[in-house]
Amino acid sequence: MLHIATVHFGSPRWIPIQTRELKRRLRVPFTTWASLEGIPSSYGRYFDRVIEQGGPHADKLNHLGIEICHVADEGDLVMFLDGDAFPVADPWPLISSGLKEAPLLAVRRSENDGDPQPHPCFCVTTAGTWQSLPGDWTKGFLWKDEQGAPRTDVGANLMRQLELTGTPWTPVPRTNRRNPHPLFFGVYGDAIYHHGAGFRSPVSRSDTRGLKPIPDPRLPLVGLLAKRIGKLRRQAQALAIARRNSKLSEGIFARIERDDPGWLDELMQPDLGGPRG
Length: 277
Hints:
Layout: E1 2-9, H1 15-25, E2 30-37, E3 49-50, H2 57-71, E4 77-81, E5 85-87, H3 92-101, E6 104-107, E7 119-126, H4 127-132, E8 143-144, E9 150-151, H5 156-165, E10 170-172, E11 186-188, E12 192-194, H6 205-208, H7 224-257, H8 262-268
Parallel strand pairs: 1-2, 1-4, 2-3, 6-10
Antiparallel strand pairs: 4-7, 5-12, 6-7, 8-9, 11-12
């Protein structure tokens, strides 16, 4: 049995898409477990189990893992899948080969400043492995990104737990041939699509890296007014980025929603000169 844990927040827009694609692509029996905070209860009909939850995203995932492992056999599979993620091909070959190499496989978003940790947009392991580690999606453990800055993010503590227990894992890389954005709209292992920022403002680290820093008022000749102006300028730049990314995101979402097959073909064809990730 495959148990799928997914979190949707504030908007039901991805629910019909995700459940449609799970039914279309999966060839093994599965049960869906969902968190639907801020979403009308009528959408619960799309899932087998709905768990009432609140709190941060990682805590919701951990709680879903607890609920699943309470009823699952040790050998049952647990798939964590972000609300704006879904299979675009049968993921079983990817899952089967990945679990032969290690007891856990997950997306690794190395395109995000070299992030090294498992990411919950797609992760599969057994209930027994998740309990024995134990699995933990919260952030806390730090690493240095490609810019040399300390980082932590969802999956950081899981990565550290894997390291401390000597447990190997199989990273699933991004396999886009064309990248409209360096981080968002990713296909992983030729089988899983993750839209990215499906429930928040679509601004990533790569978008804000080039923004001008806010002046430090402690420096000579730089006062509170200069700091305020710098902050407003940075906010305006970030807002412009969010608007641009939102327009791109909404365009791709509309094509996915109406089941237009061309959107995926464009991501998986060689880039002929568009923006690169």
